[in-house]
Write a structure and sequence with these properties.
heterodimer, A: alpha/beta, 8 helices, B: ABC transporter involved in vitamin B12 uptake, BtuC, about 75% helix
Chain lengths: ~260, ~350
């Protein structure tokens, strides 16, 4: 699968919660250096699929491939070890900690031997490299040492995205990253998505906002009722095509090669 | 997230009503620890001015430091617990339990040497650690709130102690009383104070400068976020409650040394005193915020007030009234601060 440039792929994924079948044979692919939008109506299974790919949930059945090899993503820690990072809808920031502490949470730098043995933090190094990371991404925050609780919504988003981007080496998942933002802030996040893609990291972008999807995505994959029902190249599709696929009035044959269905 | 926090979140004023506070007000709120410290200095100043000969003496300050030492040790552990968003009501009962088993162990061992004293110390620490582990494990496994679990172990530790003996043990080795109990470093600083200060400094460093401290704040700030980035939040909570228990055990040993007897009936409000001290010192009951320095100040405020009132021949019970009012004010300020932040 690597020959198609597929970094991460899911095949025929099934996942039920009690009586509810969230995923019924869903497939999904992320290729190297692209922004792929995962769209679908509420309850289509987008978040469930992302949670499976980022190690938070485990599939009942189905295969996941990473760089051509079948893998089991047993936990978020495993996913992060593979270079897969997630920006959660709730951002998952610790409000009382500062941006640098949030960026390094779970990956703190410690001072050299012998203080490091006791877990003494290298705060200056973390601050420096956090400030660098945020400025490289164009995330403007007033201070890397004030609690993130004091930041605005857009700045919080910037910290969460900045953290994920800083550690992602292969794929960045973003679950509705612009849902809570104003127009200007949303535009900024979209710019961020593009610059991440240009640095060679693939981005999976979940959104309900089709204009945004068309503004940023290279490809679009559509989930409906727990299955992939269509794939489009953003440059060759219209919003009507995508809406038709989302609502079920048109259906491609799943797994069609080259992402182009019976259009 | 603790039940306290959830309860507070639902009972507190609706955030929509909160308005943005002026910058100066917010700065005053942020600097709570500094204000509390100034308040403590103010009290000392007033008492020293009114009764210089009685209050402002080395002996009196030494007495106050000794009075504060055992509570300080407990409050240090409590600071970690409250920063995680939890609470530990069992500390006073664990203190009594630890002093009973340590007293019994030293009695059984007999003798009057440092060996017996060290045995007592080890038994007290292990007993406290044991109860702390029970707290931590039950809280993380059962997901019953810390308030209820530690209320349960409060009863269990107290009952278990009284099952061993319901009369105070008086045969504490003289060596213990002479050395730790009334001994002084360089003839000046009581060993009780030295030990409490050492514990406090180590804890302050661990909280402010190490990964352990960072995770303590992170768990209290957003446990789910910490979990998602791979922090072993449950293990961390168990460690924090274990530390609180072990420090309560140490306090039990110190109390044994100071009074040369178990003080079975004397610790029923230690838990509330420690919580009040920690909260007055600026640690947030909602978790994620707090310092050891603040707790030190919070421990000394009631001690200084009580001492000063006695010297001024004011009924010392006023101290409890005053501390209760300050406690409510501290939590109110904390809530204001959070609302200000949510809309900053």
């Amino acid at each position: 699968m690597t020959e198609n440039g597929v970094v991460l792929g899911a095949r025929e994924i099934f996942k039920s919660f009690g009586q509810v079948e969230a995923l019924r044979g869903a497939s999904f692919e992320v290729r190297r250096g692209e922004v792929v939008a995962l769209v679908g109506d509420n309850g289509a299974g987008k978040s469930t699929l992302i949670k499976i790919l980022s190690g938070t949930l485990h599939p009942d059945a189905g295969e996941i491939h990473f760089e051509g090899r079948p893998v089991t993503i047993g936990s978020p820690t495993v996913a992060r070890g593979m270079g897969l990072e997630t920006v959660y809808q709730d951002l998952a920031l610790a409000p009382e900690l500062d941006p640098a502490a949030n960026l390094f949470l779970g990956r703190e730098l410690v001072r050299p031997f012998p203080l490091g043995l006791f877990g003494f933090l290298d705060k200056p190094a973390m601050r420096r490299s956090a400030a660098e990371a945020f400025s490289k991404l164009g995330v403007r925050i007033p201070s890397v040492t004030a609690p993130v609780a004091n930041l605005s919504g857009g700045q919080l988003q910037g910290v969460a995205v900045g953290r994920a981007v800083n550690w992602a080496s292969k794929v960045l998942f973003m679950d509705e990253p612009t849902a809570a933002l104003g127009v200007v802030q949303a535009q900024h996040v979209l710019e961020l998505v593009r610059s991440v893609r240009d640095s060679g990291i693939s981005v999976v972008f979940i959104s309900h906002n089709l204009p945004q999807v068309f503004g940023v995505a290279d490809r679009i994959e559509v989930l409906r009722l727990g299955r992939r029902v269509a794939r489009f190249r953003a440059s060759e599709a219209t919003m009507d095509d995508v809406v038709a696929a989302m609502t079920g009035s048109v259906e491609q044959v799943d797994g069609t090669e080259n992402g182009q269905g019976s259009r | 997230m603790s039940e306290l926090e959830q309860a507070a979140a639902t009972q507190g004023a609706p955030p929509a009503e909160a308005r943005r506070l002026p910058r100066t007000v917010r700065w005053l709120l942020e600097a709570q620890t500094a204000w509390i410290f100034l308040a403590l200095l103010g009290m000392i100043g007033v008492f020293a001015f009114l009764k210089p000969a009685e209050f402002a003496t080395v002996d009196n300050f030494r007495n106050m430091a000794v009075d504060a030492s055992s509570l300080l040790v407990i409050a240090v552990g409590m600071t970690f617990v409250i920063i995680t968003g939890g609470i530990d009501l069992s500390v006073g009962a664990v203190l009594v339990f630890a002093s009973i088993v340590a007293g019994k162990a030293m009695e059984a061992q007999g003798g009057n040497g440092y060996g017996t004293v060290l045995l007592g110390l080890a038994v007290a620490l292990v007993a406290g650690l044991g109860w702390g582990l029970v707290n931590g494990i039950v809280i993380t496994r059962s997901r019953v709130t810390p308030l209820i679990v530690t209320l349960g172990t409060l009863g269990m530790a107290e009952g278990a102690g009284l099952l061993i003996t319901d009369v105070n043990i008086r045969s504490v080795p003289l060596k213990l009383t002479d050395s730790i109990g009334i001994g002084r470093l360089w003839g000046q600083i009581p060993y009780l104070v030295v030990i409490a200060a050492f514990v406090t400094v180590v804890a302050a460093i661990a909280l402010a400068l190490t990964r352990f401290g960072r995770y303590t704040y992170a768990v209290g700030s957003n446990a789910e976020a910490a979990r998602r980035v791979g922090v072993k939040t449950e293990q961390h909570l168990i460690k924090v409650y274990a530390i609180s228990g072990m420090l309560a055990g140490l306090a039990g040993f110190l109390s044994l040394a100071r009074f040369s007897t178990t003080t079975i009936g004397g610790h029923s409000t230690d838990n509330l005193q420690a919580i009040a001290a920690v909260v007055i010192g600026g640690t947030s009951l909602f978790g994620g915020i707090g310092t050891i320095v603040g707790s030190v100040v919070g421990v000394f405020i009631p001690v200084v007030l009580q001492n000063g009132f006695i010297i001024l021949s004011v009924q010392p019970y006023w101290q409890e009234v005053a501390v209760g009012a300050v406690l409510i004010a501290a939590v109110y300020l904390d809530q204001l601060k959070r609302r200000a932040r949510a809309h900053g």
